[in-house]
Amino acid sequence: IKGEVNKALNNPVNSNSISEICRKAKSVCILVCDITRPVPNKLFLKQMILKFINAGISSDNILIIIATGLHRPASKTEIAEIIGSSWVLKNIKIENHFARDDSMHKYIGTTKQGNIIKLDKRFLDAEIKIVTGLVEPHFMAGYSGGRKVIAPGIAHADTITTFHSARYMENPNATSCNLINNPLHQDQLEIVNMIGQVYAINCVIDENRNLSFINYGEIISSHMKAVNFISSFAKVK
Fold it and tell me: Is the terminal CB of the chain with fewer CB neighbours within 10 Å at N or C?
């Protein structure tokens, strides 16, 4: 698995190498899902972070945010379980996202469908932005992972409740395994464009939670590759 993770990190999808993107940057923010998603972070977090440190980023300038969405903050025990690496827990700053704390968010724009987008400013302020997540069918967004880790992951409560409103949920395209004209997915793509360059680690796991697929790269194209991989297993003809 270590070899596969290394291969993914060394062959980014539609993006420059890690050492390349670190040349002009000093800070990194990594989003990880909360305890409700079984992302195998322990398999890749340390390896990825070490690549950033080796490329000249100080470990003091690397922050991990638990993308809680509207869920409660992760407890200390849960954080240890989510991260799964004692080295990361010891060496890297890890903080929760608080969707209802106005002072921690920044307005970045309004989507065509009228959702006012406010996101965690710690993520927006970082020079290198990375999301990590699990790609599987999702009953509203079509597929989880990638762009979804940003919104709802680290969005303000107002933005999240708009996503979860009847205006989106009643749309027949907001359904499992569909990204075509899916209002949630469209908003999420718009949000990525508002932010600018974002990178992602996408994982697919099997029914025993073993890693079946991992890639790294530009958030939209790397997510689509993971979607193409999982869709052949997730759909019934």
Answer: C
**What 8-state DSSP symbol labels residue 21?**
H
Tell me the pLDDT tens digit for each residue of 169-212: 999 999 999 999 999 999 999 999 999 999 999 999 999 999 99
Question: Looking at the DSSP assignment, which residues form a beta bridge with residue 138?
Answer: 142
Nearest to 69 by CA among 12, 152, 171, 190: 152
Residue 17 to residue 34: CA distance in whole angstroms: 27
Residue 203 tokens, joined = 């994982």
CB-based contacts of 101, cutoff 8 Å, min separation 6: none
Q: Burial level of 42, CB count in 10 A (0-12/13-18/19+)?
A: middle
Contact at 8 Å (CB) between 162 and 116? yes
Confidence of residue 129 (pLDDT cuts 50, 70, 90): very high
Phi, psi of 167 (to 5 degrees): -55, -35
**Average per-residue pLDDT for the chain:** 96
Cα within 13 Å of Cα(216), Cβ side: 21
DSSP tag of 201: E
Q: Which two tokens stand for residue 27?
A: 């800070």
The verdict on pTM exceeding 0.90 is yes
Instruction: Phi first, then psi: give them for residue 98, nearest 5 degrees.
Output: -120, 100
